[in-house]
Amino acid sequence: MILTLKGLPNPRQAEFFCSTARHTAYGGARGGGKSWAMRRKMVLLALSYPEINILILRRTLPELRENHVIPLLKELKDVAKYNATERVFRFPNGSRIKLGYCDGANDIYQYQGQEYDVIGMEEATHFTEEQMQFLTTCNRTTRMDFSPRMYYTCNPGNIGHEWVKRLFIDRQFEHGESPDDYTFIPARVWDNDVLLKADPDYVKQLEKLPEELRRAHLDGDWDVHAGQYFREFSRQKHVVAPFDIPSWWKKFRSIDWGYNDPCAVLWHAVDSDGRVFTYRELYVREMRADVVAKKIVELSGNENISYTVSSPDMWQKRGAILKSEGGFEGECIAEMFMHGGVALTPADNSRVAGWQRVRSFLADAPDGKPYWQCFDVCSNLIRTLPALIYDRNNREDCADGNDHAPESLRYALMSRPMKSIMPVYKKKVYDPLATDEKYTNRFMEF
Ligand SMILES: Nc1ncnc2c1ncn2[C@@H]1O[C@H](COP(=O)(O)OP(=O)(O)OP(=O)(O)O)[C@@H](O)[C@H]1O
Ligand SMILES: [Mg+2]
Q1: How many Cβ atoms are within 10 Å of 28's Cβ, its own excluded?
Q2: Which among 153, 310, 329, 373 could bridge 34 via Cys, Cβ 3.0 to 4.6 Å?
Q3: Mean local confidence (pLDDT), 154-179
Q4: Cα-flanking dihedrals φ and ψ of residue 351, to 5°?
């Protein structure tokens, strides 16, 4: 057997090789040697563990062919047999590496019922969170000598930017996710000596990119990314520490309803300049409408809420009368909310105009501060708003994805919140010298 694997791993690649975490991501800047490391790691696993079953995925077939099939055919010549129809490399020790892609939303289901000891997701940010979650259900093993794991390579940007950032950069975990399972290895082009020597101009090309792209592709900065819809969003400018909101500020709420998808409820307050502050969020999944309504009432306390705008689809009649355990009945979700003490107004759902409205609120007012700011407790809104990316087919719109909290914000800002006007409390004093005209009212106001 002649193995034609050339090159030694750089220190970052070596870290990637050594990681046995349940989920290991290797990512950041372009050209660090991530794809090389992914291919090499999978081959090393196939050689080390007889009969191991490995899946390497890329989003599209042409990318898969260029990045993995062609290089692996060269590297594994005389080592593993390739079946082009199945796209599988079979090793003499019974191990197999399957190369797959899932371009369309449903392509992922071809892996249903299959079992892979290791899954490698190349350019993981090109996959949606749902696709990743589905793939984790195929990542299991019956062997005693190996723990199942997933390896990811990624650059900032694209449809999966937000879940990769949440798990590996921000390390904000949700129910059922254990922090110890997630390891991140940063990639920089400067790690890759081979590339720097062979193509010294590559770094210069990255340096010439426009500011945001340069920060993402050269510095591996996860706060900006290619295709970002709201580039104007800045944590420094738009996120503020909570403060006591004057009682006279107009307050209102917005809801993007979801049951399987998250339900995003936001509370907003408007100051006397018309600046809107989003001061609270409720972000829940799989919670019944009447329970959400109850929670909203609880969280609102004795605040004076002027109105609540919400997704127009909450008025869709569901056919049957819905009855909650609490006894509320309704033909639609909005009615259930109303019974729960939260009266709703259908929001203006124009997407493109609505996103423009959000954009104009992100802009600076004459005092140098943006027209919209958000309390730092609204973590889901702060995470998902900058993660929105442009829709590939409609450059005016953003792509569907984890946009529930931003949609709720859009509904809020489309409701044209009016400035709050500080009430003037007039004092009345007795004026004994009042003239005849004033006789009937001897109390003067000032
Ligand atoms: N340790 C190594 N030894 C030899 N060649 C390497 C090594 N690491 C990377 N390379 C080569 O460097 C080049 C860039 O590496 P690679 O394509 O893996 O980078 P990448 O991080 O995946 O880039 P991108 O972000 O564009 O996807 C490739 O030609 C690859 O074969
Ligand atoms: Mg790559």
Answers
A1: 27
A2: 153
A3: 90
A4: -70, -55
Most confident of the ranges 16-25, 98-107, 134-143: 16-25
pLDDT tens digit sequence for 17-68: 999 999 999 998 999 999 999 999 999 999 999 999 999 999 988 999 999 9
Average pLDDT of the segment spanning 11-16: 96
pTM score > 0.70 for this model?
Answer: no
Ranges in the chain annotated CATH 3.40.50.300: 11-217
Q: What is the pLDDT of residues 43-53, one digit of tens each?
A: 999 999 999 99
Ligand 1 close to Cβ of residue 404 (< 6 A): no
Q: What is the pLDDT of residue 439?
A: 47
Pocket lining: 420 vs ligand 1, CB cutoff 6 Å: no
337 lines ligand 1 (CB under 6 A): no
What's the length of the chain? 446
Atom of ligand 1 nearest to the CA of 30: 25
The pick from 59, 64, 155, 192 for probing ligand 1's pocket by mutation, whose C-beta has the most ligand atoms within 8 angstroms, reads 192
Lowest mean pLDDT among 28-37, 138-147, 314-323: 314-323
CATH architecture for residues 235-414: 2-Layer Sandwich (3.30)
CB distance 30 to ligand 1 below 6 Å: yes
Domain with CATH 3.30.420.280 in the chain: 235-414
Mean pLDDT for 143-169 is: 91
Tokens representing 104?
């369309």
Of 383, 381, 380, 358, the residue nearest 371 (C-alpha): 358
User: Percent of the chain beyond pLDDT 90?
Assistant: 63
